[in-house]
Amino acid sequence: MSMNPNPLSRDATDLVTNHRALASLLSAATAPASHRELAGEDDVVLAFRYAHLGPAPRPRRRKMSVTKLLAAKAMIAAVGLTGGGVALAAATGHMPSVTGGNSSAASSAAHATASHSAGGQSANHPGATPSPSMRGLCQAYTAHSADNPGKSLSNPAFSALITAAGGRANVSGYCATMLAAKPGNAPTAHQTGKPSSMPTTANTAHPTGKPTAHPSGKPTQHP
Amino acid sequence: MQAAQDGDEAAFRVLYRAIQPGLIRYLWVQVGDAAEDVASETWLQVAKNLRSFRGDAAGFRGWVATIGRHRAIDYVRHERRQPTADSPLDEAPEPVAADDTAGSALDALSTRDALALIARLPRDQGEAVLLRAVMGLDAKTAAKVLGKRSGAVRTAAYRGLHTLAVYLDELGASAPPARVTGDARVTQLPAASLKDMR
């Protein structure tokens, strides 16, 4: 472990050097890290990556709020399905399988996404994800906690969820409410019920395409 | 430091590996086995606010320690609100099982044993020892973390080390050195040395 060679003041250093057991105790306390102590590194780096690309999601989230008419549901569903933690491009890439055979919904959703990304955000930028959808996080949490009972919330990826729920203890209830509240957005409902309405929404909204009408269509606002 | 702030993951990993061991040990003394979770929360906040940090590597270490300390305090407050949970601060973590230390020489102390002994110190002394000797903060930085004057932190660290030496002497005198009794701290410092340090 790297640290200041000797952060202690001189009298404290004298104390330590003159007391063998105390010196041993301090060297035990500063022994190299165990594997377990560093076990969270990848989670932390994930959070770092997520946070570092923080400014990117903001315009996209704003866009999502103002382009509800434009395949926003498809985007939300796609993000929700992946827990918000995967690149949107990858998520839309999954759309064909998610929506079954309805490839027009998938392609129009992907098209819409691509056109939104045109302003400079590369659609396949791994970190250019929207801020985590609470619904997506709930789905991820529910799935994760089934596999890792009691451990899920230790993952920093869920901290936003904990904040939104108002504490760890509330997450389960929060998610139960959220997942029950809008069945129309649930992936299963989407899979079976939505595809028929999706293409018309996306296709009628998009082909008109009027870039001037798109609040998000100003490339200069993209980072 | 700058590279990490610019988003360089490798640089961030270097910082993490340098600081996390000391951080998690410091937190372990504050919150016991919740240290891993509290450390995760700390790093999450660090990652989130990294670009707003201004300073050098030493300052960064102190900044992480400050965030960790606040997260630990939050954790303890939260635990206190739970009627059934014990407060780790009131009840310092038990030293590891006697088998791990019994019969072994003092200089074969494990990291956990060492921390358990530090956890027996009065809180201000323990924190000062941990921040200075375990997290490697200089007196000024540690003082900033604790919201005290440098001199006060130096004194607290010195007194803490002195108390530890007395604990260790007692352990050495009584074989096997299984456990430190909780009330040992009360009788530790000779009055003269206390006076010297004030």
Write the SSE topology.
The complex is a heterodimer of chains A (223) and B (198).
Chain A: H1 10-17, H2 20-29, H3 41-52, H4 57-66, H5 72-81, H6 88-98, H7 103-117, H8 134-147, H9 159-165, H10 171-181, H11 187-192, H12 198-208
Helix pairs in contact in A: 5-6, 5-8, 6-7, 7-12, 8-10, 9-10
Chain B: H1 2-5, H2 9-31, H3 35-49, H4 57-81, H5 98-101, H6 111-118, H7 123-134, H8 139-146, H9 150-173, H10 191-197
Name the poorly predicted regions of chain B.
Answer: 85-107, 176-198
C-alpha end-to-end distance of chain B: 38 Å
Rg of chain B (CA only): 18 Å
**Which residues of chain A sit in consecutive blocks of at least 5 with pLDDT less than 50?**
56-131, 184-223
Order of helices and strands of chain A: HHHHHHHHHHHH
The major β-sheet of chain B equals: none
Strand segment count of chain A: 0
The residue-averaged pLDDT of chain B reads: 81
Tally of contiguous helical segments of chain A? 12
Mean model confidence by pLDDT of chain A:
60
Oligomer: heterodimer
| Category from helices, strands and their pairing of chain A | mainly alpha
Apparent shape of chain A: elongated
The radius of gyration over CA of chain A amounts to 24 Å
User: What is the helix fraction of residues of chain A, given as a range?
Assistant: 55-70%
- The percentage of residues in β strands of chain B lies in under 5%
What is the number of helices of chain B? 10
